[in-house]
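Chapter summary example.
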Amino acid sequence: RSSDLASGGVLPRILPELLAKKRGSRSKGETILSPSPEKKKSKPPPAAKKPAKKGKASKGRQTKKEKQTEGGKESTANASEDGPGDGFTVLSSKSLFLGQKLSLTQNDLSHIGSMKVEGIIHPTSADIDLKEDIGNALEKAGGKEFLEAVKELRKSHGSLEVSEAALSQANGLAAKFVIHCHIPQWGSDKCEEQLEKTVKNCLSAAEDKKLKSVAFPTFPSGRNGFPKQTAAQVILRAIASHFVNSSSSTLKNIYFLLYDSESIGIYVQEMAKLDTK
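The structure predicted for these 277 residues follows.
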């Protein structure tokens, strides 16, 4: 081979062909490699779509948060409507069988008209009079509008049987209805059973109107002669057993309005003993 290169006969013939082949291979390589940068440049468009998806997701999250805040406002509004109101001190609370909350609250009786409940219990006589302390307080709070509502009830319903309950509009009061009930006399036949029935009738009347909250004042011992200790035991037991024997109830909160030191001591003591199961 060295002699061929020295003679000069082989190199001039082979070199052009090799050069041509090398040039051809280079040109082919250039045509193959040239599209690859274009393919790399065509990849960014899919990446541009990702921000759009993130934007949609962020909008969806904002609407969920807005719904949550709106729901929170509604729940706080419902809680405030069912609460006993400003100035009422909660002394004790207990959960009942169906999840209802029974609370003992303290305030002056003159504030009974401002209780933020849907129904107020009014223990009274067969004639639905307003002579006792609770009736007087309701009349003072509601004024002539409330008195007219009671007169209409007397005309439409007539006298109440023992343990019977009837509703009137709570005109002039923060509540929607007043539930008037005829409480039995102490010493009468089966008076404790009748008192228990009276309480349950009041709760049933509230449920018939789909009320969510009611307030019981302490039943006056002056009218019917019930000892306060006995009355507290019977009334609390009646409330607890009512929900144990019910499959469902619209009531969520039951309040007691206690306005004298003796009743406060008795009800707090009896509440602690109460079996809600």
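To summarize the output: The longest strand covers residues 89-95.
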